Amino acid sequence: MISLPKTGVLNIHPGWLPSYKGAMAYFWVLNNGSDRGGVTVHWIDEGLDTGEVLARRSFTLKANATQESVLMYTAVIGAKLLGRVVKRLIDGKDPKLHLIHSSNEKDMYYPMPGDKDFESYFKQRRYFRIRDVLTVLVMKKYR
Fold first, then answer.
1. d(CA 105, CA 75)
2. What is the DSSP string of 57-112?
3. Longest distance between any two alpha carbons in the chain, whole Å
4. Dihedral angle sign, alpha carbons of residues 46, 51, 57, 62
């Protein structure tokens, strides 16, 4: 399937690659106590989140961040990054927004969280708060 499109398939991954490969990176970044989240645009290949990275952006995580707030940040930032990458592709330019050196970064894969992971998470954090949605809707910084 990934070889059918002439140019390839792009993915917006809600995590900093290669450090947060796998499902629900937004869950794992919070569960691990990280102070930064990230979003990555990359080519899809046969591996799990292993395709060439074209663009990334990190952001600070607030102490009371929820999975929902991190996911919303990555969606907004990811859409902007994807738009820039696609524009470069349409213009016939190299789609990389800047030189990405990820070979010296920690390469980690995180599986889908299990019941024990969620139990541990919910002891210290929440999944959702309505004010998170409202904050993203009025944010100018990420638009």
1. 23
2. EEEEPPTT--HHHHHHHHHHHHHHHHHHHHHHHHTTS-S-SS----TTS---EE--
3. 49
4. positive
pLDDT along the chain (143 residues), means of 10: 85 96 94 95 94 94 89 93 96 86 83 93 76 67 51
Give the chain's length. 143
**Contact predicate 33/93, CB 8 Å:** no
Q: What is the spatial distance between Cα 113 and Cα 59, in angstroms, rounded to a whole number?
A: 23
**Residues 58/40, Cβ–Cβ less than 8 Å:** no
Packing angle, helices 67-90 and 130-138, rounded to 10: 30
